[in-house]
Amino acid sequence: MTTLTWSDALTLQQPLLDQTHQEFVELLNAFGAALDAEQDALPAFQTLLAHTEAHFEMEERWMAANGFEAQNCHSGQHAMVLNVMREVVRHATELNDREPMRIVRGELAQWFPAHAEMMDAALVYTMQQRGFDPATGQCSSPTAETNISSCGAKSCGH
Fold first, then answer.
1. pTM of the entire predicted model
2. Can you give the residue ranges of the Hemerythrin-like domain (predicted)?
């Protein structure tokens, strides 16, 4: 069973981010396949976690270069997801409890498309508006006088 299917609906027209997102989906599916095969899924999950850490670090660098406040809601979501994923590893390694891995599989599959559609799309839009070049980390247009603290959603509490 495929956990999450990569499709054009998940692309954001930012090649490096789209590639990273596609890798995330592939690693999530590899982790799901290990669960389905009743194999030890912890190594696949740890690979997914390492990729997610690097993925989020890249986005955090981009946000900082584009004038996002350090404590913006996009970063807050990253922190929450990483905390949950690290706790899943802790449960598996220290408590020999593998059930959280089964739960987090479905949660990540539901969370990711919404996060990409709202949070990451807003980041890409800001990058485009500011002429941000991911290769150099530079913006051709200056950042706004005030830093960005929210994701732009009406429901955002920031």
1. 0.90
2. 16-122
